[in-house]
Design goal:
The chain is mostly helical. Helix content is about 70%, strand content about 0%. The mean pLDDT is about 90.
């Protein structure tokens, strides 16, 4: 991954400082009023796709125990682990 050119970095920093200065001038009541009027942002993602895996029963049992301690379903835990590993591989290939 390439670094940003210095010119763009300076421009972004100046923009961030301008936003900070602008926000500092706002009153909490004004911000609350604007937030009340704002519509929530909804990011559209494709629906999850179910798959079938053959896993070792010991691995499934351990995943269920770990998930129970974390308070989430074991399928969600496995999905999170897979997502994290895919991201690690993407970074390693860059």
């Amino acid at each position: 991954m390439s670094k940003l050119p210095e010119k763009i970095k300076k421009k972004l920093k100046a923009e961030a400082l301008a936003w900070d200065a602008s926000i500092a001038k706002e009153k909490p009541e004004d911000a609350a009023r604007l937030l009340d009027k704002a519509e929530p942002f909804v990011a559209m993602r494709p629906p999850r796709q179910p798959i079938s895996l053959s896993l070792d029963p010991v691995d499934i049992s351990m995943a269920k125990r770990i998930a129970r301690r974390k308070g989430i379903s074991f399928t969600h835990l496995i999905s999170m682990w897979l997502h994290e590993r895919i991201n690690q591989e993407k970074v390693a290939q860059s």
